Known about the structure:
- This protein is an alpha/beta fold.
- It has one domain (9-100, 131-193): Pyruvate kinase, C-terminal domain (Pyruvate Kinase, Chain: A, domain 1, 3-Layer(aba) Sandwich).
- 35% of the residues lie in helices and 22% in strands.
- It has 6 helices and 7 strands, in the order E-H-E-H-E-H-E-H-H-H-E-E-E.
- It has a 7-stranded mixed beta sheet with strand order 1-7-6-5-2-3-4, with helices on both faces.
- Strand 2 (37-41), helix 2 (46-55) and strand 3 form a beta-alpha-beta unit.
- Helix 5 (119-131) crosses helix 6.
- The mean pLDDT is 91.
Amino acid sequence: MAFTRKDIFYFQRPGEENTADAARMAVGRARELGLRRIVVASTSGTTALRFLDAMEGTGLELVVVTHVVGFSSPGVWEFAPDAEKRLREKGARIVTGTHALSGLERALSRSQKVSGGSRTEAIAEALRRVVAMGLKVAVECVLIAADQGAVSVTEEVVACGGTISGADTVCVIRPAHTASFFDLQVREIVAMPRVR
């Protein structure tokens, strides 16, 4: 029988207070597996900067996936200019793309003229509710990064997402493009909130 034994870390509760630990775990697992990239969700740049600090001197590449312009307010990009500048100076790649697991579907489900959910939103809700919000975020960020060419679909990455803000979920994913969603594989869960 061939198997690999690995610890999974469980945070007592979801949220931003887990970010520093999630960053350390992401770096540790990437190095153990010999992976080159860590993908992290960051709305304002704060979480990305914490990951950048944790990755210093490791040779790992940081891919930051942000909300699209207009996500919270029409015409507004929520990413802080000073965070963007520092991240780019340190070689991080910042990707801004339409949410792969909602995008246009959200406009339809929120519309008063068109009602009902969609299969895409059902997938997002299943990831969010059955495993963790951070897993849904990590999966979506990897899809967006793959679609933008920031990660290869042939190399595993460590991907990190969170619940509302910060990072509380760390996993290893073999990426796929959004159009090939079912080729994506969550190969490991390194850390996640135990209670959601």
